Amino acid sequence: MNYQPSDYLPIIVQLGAALAFIVLTMVATHWLGPKRHSSKKDDVFECGIESIGDARTPISVKYFLVAILFVLFDVEIVFMYPWAVNFKELAWDGFVEMVVFMSFLLLGFIYVIKKGVLKWEK
Amino acid sequence: MQQLPDVIRQIPLNNYVWFSAALFCIGIIGVLTRRNAIIIFMSIELMLNAVNLLLAAFSSYKADPAGQVFVFFIMAVAAAEVAVGLAIIVMIYRNIQSIDVGILNKLKW
Amino acid sequence: MNAIIALSLSGIASLFLGFSTNRKNLLITTLLFVLVALGLNLADWNHEYFWFNNMLKTDNLSINFSSVILLSTALVVAISRSFGDDEEHTHPAEYYAIMLFAAAGALMMVTYENMIMLFVGLEILSVSMYILTGSDKRNLRSNEAALKYFLMGAFATGILLFGVALVYGATGSFNIHGIGEVVSRTKKGMELFEGGVILYAGIILIFIGLLFKVSAAPFHFWTPDVYEGAPTIFTTFMSTVVKTAGVAAMYRLLSISFPAVYGLWGNPLVWITCLTLIVGNITAVYQQSFKRMLAYSSISHAGYLLITILAKTPNTNGSILFYSLAYSIATISAFAVLMIVSENKPKDGKPDESFEALNGLSVNNPFLAFVLTVSMLSLAGIPLTAGFFGKFFIFTDAFSNVSPLFKNILVVAILMSAVGVYYYFKPIIAVYMKKGEIAEIQLPLIYKITLIITTALTIILGIAPDLVKNMF
User: Fold this and answer.
1) What is the CATH number of the domain that holds B74?
2) Which of C27, C28, C88, C357 supports an S-S bond with C352, CB 3.0-4.6 Å?
3) Taking Cα atoms as reference points, which of C301, C379, C371 lies closest to residue C341?
4) Contacts of B79 in chain A (CB under 8 A)
5) Is residue B28 situated within a structural domain?
6) Does the ipTM exceed 0.85?
């Protein structure tokens, strides 16, 4: 079986339907909804509770650290896919190499824990 | 079920080359013209992704897995680069409250 | 390549040692790790091996380059002392670990057989250097240098990678011998074989990426800023280890993969070399800061190294190695003296790195003055120092190449060496002639030993260059 570019027509139709729905609802609510202005209504985030301060408050650098660590360790998974595909062919050699690789990562993780990066209350 | 390389091969190789060259040039222009460190950084990532795309296309046209392996390495190393790069940018932001590269002119040549 | 494995493992070990031992022990253990790696590296002598499924190949040339790199690393580690004595904001264990990893990356760059390893080695080295450049977190100049280095470095990597991808598309191989074979088959003038444009574009892009990394002239603009902003100890590491590794990687690639298309990269390289020499030397004359002058001088030395890559004579291996060795040891002693003097005499709370900081050094510190003088003479290429023979071998190579272009390069190079003599004498004059007050500086033992080693090596190689030259 061979895919032709025309086989992707349903995707375009779907895309068109989705776009049309969004545009339609946006225009319709704009027309149908009543418009009232007041200081409360014009709040940036109107939900019944008064908003306090600025959206750009500094957040703890710990979030950043955790996010960066996630990116680092997450991407290393990429090397496990080729191994998983060729798991049988690589046999024990591949397994040992993967264990070495993972233990390097694990050492990094242990270092992170020992440094206290993941401790939230300090 | 078709193999993925066959699907890739339905588009002529030239198109891939032109497309990734275009992406790469957009990245270069972004690096050269933007002033915001994060956006420069994103442009660099765009350049790397152009390379990844090109390697994957060549690899499936040549039926040689080496190109895809290279892509894995580029992705992993790019992640390390992201970590270090963002850390540097955050460090600068904490010191001067801005990431405009124009402000960084303590060192003149 | 056992040295690479040893360096990676010892890098992790020194990370964890940071939890238990104090700074002084860390220095000694790191030094020991580097020396062990040097020993393992030399143990491979005369064995031509392929490692890891043809990913790396050790031969005598790569072992020589690795030895120069490891020797420089050992000397830099020896003068690292305590990274400025600031207990709270410095993390010596991490710095040492990153330096060990960087050295492992540099070794990969000189032993690679496959483009993947060139890329991975280059990135290990570069990412480590980004971190070390920004390690002085509260200093805005260090921050700025780190950001510039990072953005420029990542940009150069992107260009290099696009080149690699195009060359892969044209030749179907990442193996440098495999690429070389295909490239040599497609020679026959400059006609465009199938995908020929892709190949040539790829080679040019790889070439540009590598020139960024060795900071040759049109691509040098990040160098002075980064060298000046980085903490001096890491500037030393950058201008020795990173430069040697970059030049070695470039030489390996150009001499194995692309000798058949010499016309393609040779002609631009002639202009780039001349430009590098002129820009590096002329701009160095106008610098007020000693550190910045050394940065420009490192650009000009990259120019001299490019001459011998261009010359392509049978002696090129030996010339590059000798020059890198002579340059590295002289640079390390120059930076060491700068570091000692500038930390001793802060101005506005920061180390004073201008030429004035050196005024009158010889009165109370004749040893430091002598070390600085020898290293400056060596960098300038005055006879009886290693630098003289380094330049001599390079000029001989250029002279023995029959191409008339080389006579032009030679003229530029000799003129620029004369300019170099002028600015390298500025610190010497400051040390001996100018008046200034510097109290006697107490040197730790390890500093003294390192400086004696570098100075002695510089003089010995200057008197008897054959001792080392014949080894290469």
Assistant:
1) 1.10.287.3510
2) C357
3) C371
4) 71-72, 74-76
5) yes
6) yes
